[in-house]
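I would like you to sit down with the pair of lines that follows and say whether tokens and residues agree.
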Amino acid sequence: MIDFTLKKGCSKVALNPISYISHSVGTITVVSIALLLLQVILLAVTKSYSSLLLVLVCLAGTLGAESVYYFLWKKGYGSHSWRISIMQGLLCGLLVPSTYPCHVVLIVVFFVFVFSRLVFGDFADSWVNLTAFTVFLLYFVNSSFFPGFQITSSDLQSRNPALVLIQNGTVPVLKCDGAVTEFLNRNVFRFFGVSIPEGYVSLFWDNGSIIPAFRFNLMTLLSSLVLVSFELIDAMIPFLFLLVYGLLVRYAGPFFVGAASFQGDIILAMLTSGTLFFTFYVLQWFGTTPISSVGKFFYGVISGLCGFIIIGLGTSSSGYALTILVMNLVSPVIQVIEDRRLFSATSRKIIPRLKYMKEYDNA
């Protein structure tokens, strides 16, 4: 006999006839756009007008490409695609150096997005992360506009390489940095027996990078808490990436630069190279990541390993974009393995039970 009674986990009664297991793409994009606009507001507050102009240029490029596709080839295209285009435009604008010529950015962004739409249609974003591809293509077109590594191998041999960036003026120190640092050391860090030097607050709040997305790490971290808390993104992939990348920087990195063993600077790695921004906004783009928990686990671990190899120990301007493109090649392999495991599990467990239920109904 087959037991048709409800299990304990299935006995909950809800007023709504349908309960969604995850947020829609529309909801995710609206919230993400709102959070990205906070970064844009900070650019306006800090009078970073060249960066604001590039954000508008990238928005014009992505929305222009969407308009061409909509009016010429895809009548009745869903409204969510426009929101995705706005989100991609904001991401591109925030990831392009403020010194890059606007006309070149507009041409590259427009043709990347319109070409991908014409060739791949609705699935253009599922085969490659267009934001990462655009950033890397701009780097390939003219890498001189992207800042180089701002710290040398000899600097990495010191105990606190991030402090070198502060002392040599690469990271501008805020006027209130000293007061905030003293407050934190006196009221927070003293309970842990440690203290932070002056300048780390500035590095965390605004590190002064010419790439806007790399600057406001505190805002990015607060935004990530919103995305994770409301389950707008899956926390597994970003957590595993940051964990694996951080451990490799801490324990493996010193062996490659001749520094003291197990003393890699995690703060430098996390607060430069756009690590936090890329991890929470770009790494797991729609359709480019595995679906199962096992697949996400391997995706997160492998991406952390690739990040360590490509990004290095920090201050890389384009390494994370290349890391994502590499993971776009790895992800389909993981997804093929996922499909085979799912087919095997279906053949072994579900199909026999369906046959048994059919025989029971015919009895």
